[in-house]
């Protein structure tokens, strides 16, 4: 028996099936035809006649009796009937969602994306749950504040459908759930207020000291939760066992980026201060974070001679003596950033450096202030 942990949008597919908005089966994408039918793609290697679907808490919620499969580069599509095993765990705004909401009066307007301004009129508005609870709560609050009726449509996964086709499908589901729509308004998906600050620089450049100062200043100036991903803690916990080869460093910084992006996705501020010596790993982190929030790269540009003169941990001396291999700046490369949002020079005290970063943030990534 094969088990599959549902993503938030796949969980929405089941919710739509329970509500009768989608048929209770998965179809292969190419044979789905015109009527909206959910598709399910599992990682390569999945096989078996029955797939058990697990929710976020790993509780089995449904089974798929697999009738057909199609294997592609990115995974295995499975088609078959879906049987629910138990009610799905409670969703946010349960009374506004297709299975349980009261019928709407009048033709609703569907809002895809999360535009700051509502469409004109007085009619009901259907907002889409994109899987981000905070964004959904904001969208519902905005509609209610305008005195309009609101309903929530869970966004289906429809992995293989993108762009206008996807919006068309979502529109059809909204009509099936809440009645014929009067309009569909599509706006850019607005990213949240989450932020990641990555301080990069040589060992001994001052990254950790400045990161701590910055965390303190930010905690006083924003209502957002501020998390400092301390370098030593990361190496002791998240990246325990990793060394300093190229592969290990890539994995280390990838893990930091993954955690930091999660924090940003949930509206928090993450500050991380690994050496992050390769341009490629910093670019990957920026790309990952910018899908969900803002990213600010700070180069702590203390020159090698200064770091080496500080040599608080005696590591440079050991690296020069050949006792430590692959030491950044000595026997391993440090790619000077060409895309830093802020550059800190060695003549700045840690406090001044933190103030410089704070000032830059107020321009490139303003945060909700503690007083507002
Ligand atoms: N070979 C080698 N090269 C560089 N640094 C080394 C090495 N071996 C151990 N150390 C110590 O580990 C700290 C750097 O770890 P990071 O996680 O920041 O590095 S990386 O981003 O994965 O490249 C770094 O700490 P900081 O001085 O705080 O930067 C060093 O003390
Ligand atoms: N702006 C600065 N001026 C002088 N010394 C500093 C400055 N920033 C950090 N230091 C000192 O340099 C040493 C290394 O700083 P640290 O923050 O641990 O660097 P990193 O995290 O980049 O390895 C510490 O002893 C720290 O007190």
TrEMBL record:
Q: Which organism is it from?
A: Demequina zhanjiangensis
Keywords, A to Z, come to: ATP-binding, Kinase, Nucleotide-binding, Transferase
Q: What Enzyme Commission number(s) appear in the record?
A: 2.7.1.25
UniProt KW Kinase keyword: yes
Pfam short name (any one): APS_kinase
List the Gene Ontology MF annotations in alphabetical order: adenylylsulfate kinase activity
Taxonomic lineage of the native organism: Bacteria, Bacillati, Actinomycetota, Actinomycetes, Micrococcales
Pathway listed for it?
Sulfur metabolism; hydrogen sulfide biosynthesis; sulfite from sulfate: step 2/3
Residue ranges of every copy of the APS kinase domain listed in the record: 194-344
Q: Which InterPro entries match?
A: APS, APS_kinase_dom, P-loop_NTPase, Sulf_AdTrans/APS_kinase
Quote the Gene3D superfamilies the UniProt record gives. Answer: P-loop containing nucleotide triphosphate hydrolases
Q: Give the protein's function.
A: Catalyzes the synthesis of activated sulfate.
Q: What is this protein called?
A: Adenylyl-sulfate kinase
> Could you confirm whether the keyword ATP-binding appears in this record?
yes
Q: Which reaction does it catalyse?
A: adenosine 5'-phosphosulfate + ATP = 3'-phosphoadenylyl sulfate + ADP + H(+)
Q: Which PANTHER family match?
A: SULFATE ADENYLYLTRANSFERASE
Recorded family membership: Belongs to the APS kinase family.
């Amino acid at each position: 028996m094969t088990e599959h942990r549902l993503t938030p949008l796949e969980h929405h597919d089941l919710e739509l099936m329970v509500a009768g908005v989608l048929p209770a089966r998965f179809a292969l994408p190419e044979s789905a035809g015109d009527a909206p039918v959910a598709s399910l793609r599992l990682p390569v290697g999945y096989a078996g006649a029955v797939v058990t679907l697990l929710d976020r808490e790993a509780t089995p919620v449904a089974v798929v009796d697999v009738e057909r499969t199609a294997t592609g580069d990115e995974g295995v599509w499975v088609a078959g009937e879906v049987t629910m095993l138990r009610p799905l765990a409670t969703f946010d705004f349960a009374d506004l969602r297709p299975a349980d909401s009261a019928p709407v009066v009048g033709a609703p307007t569907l809002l895809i994306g999360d535009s700051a301004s509502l469409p004109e009129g007085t009619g009901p508005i259907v907002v889409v749950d994109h899987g981000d609870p905070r964004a959904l709560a904001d969208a519902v609050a905005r509609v209610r504040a305008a005195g309009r009726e609101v309903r929530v449509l869970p966004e289906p996964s429809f992995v293989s459908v993108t762009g206008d086709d996807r919006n068309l499908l979502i529109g059809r589901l909204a009509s099936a759930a809440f009645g014929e729509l009067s309009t569909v308004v599509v706006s850019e998906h607005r990213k949240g207020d989450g932020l990641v600050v990555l301080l990069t620089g040589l060992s001994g450049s001052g990254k950790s000291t400045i990161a701590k100062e910055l965390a303190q200043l930010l905690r006083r100036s924003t209502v957002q939760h501020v998390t400092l991903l301390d370098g030593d803690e990361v190496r002791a916990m998240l990246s325990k066992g990793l060394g300093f080869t190229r592969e290990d460093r890539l994995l280390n910084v990838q893990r930091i980026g993954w955690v930091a992006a999660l924090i940003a996705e949930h509206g928090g501020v993450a500050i991380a201060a690994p050496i992050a010596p390769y341009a490629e790993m910093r670019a990957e982190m920026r790309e990952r974070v910018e899908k969900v929030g803002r990213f600010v790269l700070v180069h702590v540009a203390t020159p090698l001679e200064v770091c080496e003169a500080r040599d608080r941990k005696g590591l440079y001396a050991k690296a020069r003596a050949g006792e430590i291999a692959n030491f950044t700046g000595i026997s391993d490369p440090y790619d000077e950033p060409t895309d830093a949002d802020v550059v800190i020079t060695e003549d700045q005290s840690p406090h001044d450096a933190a103030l410089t970063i704070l000032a830059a943030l107020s321009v490139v990534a303003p945060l909700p202030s503690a007083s507002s």
